Amino acid sequence: MRRSEDLELALAPRAPGVSRQGWLYAEIRAAVHAGRLAPGARLPPSRDFARQLGVSRGTVLGALAQLVAEGYLVGAVGRGTYVSGRLPSLRGTAARKAGETAGRLSHRGVLLANTPFPLAGRPQPARAFRPHQPDLAAFPFALWNRIAARRSRLSRRAMLGDGDARGYLPLRRAIAEHLRYTMRIDCGEEQVVIVGSVQQALDLCARLLLDPQDEVWMEDPGYPGAAQVFRAAGARVVGVPVDRHGLDVDAGLRLAPRARLAYVTAGRQSPLGVPLSLERRMSLLRWAEQAGACVIEDDYDSEYRYAGSPLAALKSLDTRGRVVYAGAFSKLLFPSLRLAYAVVPDWLGDHFAAALSLTARHASLLPQAVLHEFMAEGHYGRHLRRMRFTYGERAAALEQAIVRRLDGLLALLPITTGLDATAFLPAGADDAAIAKMALAAGLETRPLSAYALDATAPSGLVLGFAAFDRPQIEAGVGILAGVLEAALVGRRG
Q1: For a Cys staple, 372 with which of 144, 171, 210, 381, CB 3.0–4.6 Å?
Q2: Domains and CATH numbers, the chain
Q3: How far apart are CA 216 and CA 236, in angstroms?
């Protein structure tokens, strides 16, 4: 047994806010893990130890007692306190080379960890031209907070217990009524399931509907967040070309005739903005029925349509239970409201709810209750109408500014729906490099190449306009003009 005076106890300084007992406990524990205190090594008597460290004996005794309780140390009358001899050697773990990991992700884990979303969230306030960003300053937070306070005061004990896996029933009824009016979807509250996000709905659908190596049709270019979820489920994602009519169903049949699932943004294709034509919608439903496949329709900002009413959903044509319709409130209201919904066919409803219960139980009840009252009192509909008018004016401002300042450098696609727009760069331009240059100049854009799957996407930028007023849009276009002139004019010469 090593003598106490031979122990290698080079203790690190105590960090601010850490108690002396907690500091001593952590340092002795770390010394055991690092091998500086080997099995059988004896610690100094508590009085001597306290005097050496300049702490009270009670501090030493408290730290040692915790380590004895956890099995690191053993105390014996007449022998003192020493490191347990039963601990396996941890020296190899401590001696790993820098950068070597202690564990290994599964293949699925690697795919799940490859997220296209920023882990720390996006900084506020947003800078032009951040895509997918609603105007947070225009949201009626004072009204929302009054409803939330009232809802909290009126909450019964039932709101504190477990909820229905499908979600808060009054909210599901309100969503079903809203969808019947706006999207022409004939559904009841039993088909509506509340989830935390569309991403969660996609993940559950992938787990329920796909086996490893099943093929999935994805719009190309298309939404990267969906593609990664399907890949993580073990599916083979097949990029299907998109043209001015939306996803090319005939191309999908040629590329992957045995696909089990198709993902579409029918109301407003992400990122090009075109709606799926009626002919393509009918062809897609016919394929799904004949193939025994399913279609996920992601309602991508289609409620913000600036010419007429929102288009009827693909789900409104589904008479055979082949379409899962998913929508979220984060873009329509505010991003931190992590509430979304899925409208599922009757045959899938119980399975979907059970899978949600297994993996996440249910969404938080109080935010659902607040959102229900916000909708039931008419505030939701009024907010959408007000923002539809505001965003429409901002879309027009972006179109006018680009025509005036960027003619020949950027070709903006028509803006009919949504919070952002796509603009094409001249052929051969490196959109990823230009997006980096724009960021250095203080602009947030997204290169169109980031949406490409199997094919090479045209060079372009996705520009958000909804969160920015006319002066911000015009100033941003001015900055972008300087970036594009520096990047493209010299290249042409």
Answers
A1: 171
A2: 4-94 (1.10.10.10), 155-378 (3.40.640.10), 382-492 (3.90.1150.10)
A3: 6
370: amino acid identity, one letter? V
CA–CA separation, 343 and 191 (whole Å): 5
Which uninterrupted H or E stretch holds 49? helix 46-53
Q: Which two tokens stand for residue 90?
A: 């941890």
Short-list 413, 107, 114, CA closest to 275: 413
What are the tokens at 380?
Answer: 């939701």
pLDDT in tens, the chain (493 residues): 444 444 556 788 888 888 999 999 998 998 888 888 888 888 888 888 888 888 999 999 999 989 998 889 998 666 788 888 887 765 554 444 444 455 788 888 888 888 877 777 777 788 989 999 999 999 999 998 999 888 777 666 666 667 788 999 999 999 999 999 999 999 999 999 999 999 999 999 999 999 999 999 999 999 999 999 999 999 999 999 999 999 999 999 999 999 999 999 999 999 999 999 999 999 999 999 999 999 999 998 888 888 877 889 999 999 999 999 999 998 898 888 889 999 999 999 999 999 999 988 888 888 899 999 999 999 999 999 999 999 999 999 999 999 999 988 999 999 999 999 999 999 889 999 999 999 999 999 999 999 998 877 889 999 999 999 999 999 999 999 999 998 887 555 4
Q: Which residue has the tokens 């949406």?
A: 451
Instruction: Say how far apart CA 225 and CA 330 lie, in whole Å.
Output: 15
Provide CB contacts within 8 A for 46, sequence distance 6+: 57, 60, 61, 64, 81
C-alpha 357/C-alpha 132 separation (Å) is 30
Q: What is the spatial distance between Cα 24 and Cα 27, in angstroms, rounded to a whole number?
A: 5
